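Supplementary Methods. Inverse-folding protocol.

Structures were first reduced to a discrete structure-token string of length 412. This string, shown here, constituted the complete conditioning input.
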């Protein structure tokens, strides 16, 4: 591999970090720098590296022996696995420097930082020496991009109040919702809320579902009521119900009134159940088919990308109506059984008559039910024999784990 002495930070993000023996340590998530007085180039203090269990640690630049196009290599020695905590005077390049508003000194025009280049000096110290900045563009066009030295722009030594989010969100584009939730929690509070505000409704809804409930409430509270209602509509009904249950009655009812009636109805239904029962854990939107549906139709339905693997593992057959609460529940069909039957056959001909759960079934019995029948999802049927939802194994685990398990997982 070719060792380089210059690198742009956005290209380092996600690179693997290896120890001298070639064992993978983790991957780079950010670069920590110390801004200096005046126009002096900032010193690179180290790397934020994500190791096992999504724990983020700090690796000093003095431990870096090689920066290669595809990896970073560390020197020998013990790695401090203490969780990274940003100190006073430290700045995260991806988390805080990108999207900053600056002024190009030569022409006095405003621009936005879109990347930062770091370079190793003769002393071995790394500094941020270059910036990629982009001027505002006309409607439908991108502005001019400049590669400038650090001292050719102004505005970075000041307290930033007009920092955008476009570039930072672009670096997070490939992260799944759980990883983005962890990344969001590692940002400063102000920056965290700016990024949440800039995410589209669907993406923010997915991320909220992966955050601790206390953090969900805080972020939802920073949004305008109309936007908060839109985000709740994008969430799975069970996740939205769990979040609304943490709010006061006044706030909960206000947001429910702002939601579309069709979106609010299943959430209201779920809020009726205690959270430690099958009704409180279930989703009201499993895959529901009528008795005349074919196996081909069932297989097409479970291919929907928005379905979790657990919910896609089986379909539920009910008399009309097909929205919960349905007509009379007839049974369920497992995906493995469907794959072994002719596509033209009716789903109703391969049903499993497994006794369903009741909405008031307590968590302990729900857990036993899943263990007894080796299930990843289970139907929930009311006293009238109507399907009202389905419990998936991830919801059961979420209730079995300690309340702060997401935060503990982030901290390792």
């Amino acid at each position: 591999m070719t060792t380089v002495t210059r690198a742009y930070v956005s290209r380092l993000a996600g690179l693997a970090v290896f120890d001298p023996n070639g064992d993978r340590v983790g991957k780079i998530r950010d670069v920590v720098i110390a801004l200096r007085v005046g126009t002096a180039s900032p010193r690179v203090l180290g790397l934020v590296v994500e190791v096992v269990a999504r724990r983020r640690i700090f690796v000093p630049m003095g431990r870096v022996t090689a920066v290669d196009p595809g990896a970073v290599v560390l020197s020998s020695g013990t790695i401090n696995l203490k969780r990274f905590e940003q100190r006073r005077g430290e700045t995260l390049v991806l988390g805080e420097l990108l999207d900053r508003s600056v002024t190009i000194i030569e022409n006095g025009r405003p621009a936005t930082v879109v990347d930062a280049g770091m370079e190793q000096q003769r002393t071995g110290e790394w500094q941020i020496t270059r910036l990629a900045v982009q001027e505002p563009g006309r409607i439908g066009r991108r502005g001019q991009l400049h590669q400038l030295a650090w001292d050719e722009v102004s505005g970075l030594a000041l307290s930033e109040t007009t920092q955008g989010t476009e570039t930072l969100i672009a670096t997070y584009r490939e992260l799944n919702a759980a990883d983005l939730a962890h990344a969001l929690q590692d940002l400063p509070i102000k920056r965290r809320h700016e990024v949440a505000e800039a995410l589209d409704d669907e993406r923010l809804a997915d991320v909220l579902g992966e955050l601790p409930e206390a953090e969900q409430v805080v972020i939802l509270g920073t949004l305008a009521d109309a936007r908060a209602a839109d985000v709740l509509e994008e969430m799975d009904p069970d996740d939205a119900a769990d979040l609304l249950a943490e709010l006061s009655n006044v706030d909960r009812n206000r947001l429910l009134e702002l939601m579309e009636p069709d979106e609010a109805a299943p959430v209201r239904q779920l809020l009726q159940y205690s959270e430690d029962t099958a009704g409180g854990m279930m989703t009201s939107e499993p895959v529901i088919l009528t008795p005349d549906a074919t196996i081909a139709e069932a297989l097409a339905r479970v291919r929907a990308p928005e379905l979790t693997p657990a919910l896609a593992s089986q379909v539920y057959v009910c008399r009309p109506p097909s929205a919960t609460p349905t007509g009379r529940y007839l049974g369920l069909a497992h995906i493995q059984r469907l794959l072994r039957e002719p596509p033209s056959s009716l789903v109703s001909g391969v049903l499993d008559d497994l006794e369903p759960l009741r909405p008031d079934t307590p968590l302990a019995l729900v857990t036993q039910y899943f263990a007894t029948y080796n299930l990843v999802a289970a139907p929930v049927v009311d006293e009238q024999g109507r399907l009202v939802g389905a419990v998936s194994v991830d919801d059961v685990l979420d209730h079995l784990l300690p309340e702060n398990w997401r935060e503990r997982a982030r901290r390792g």
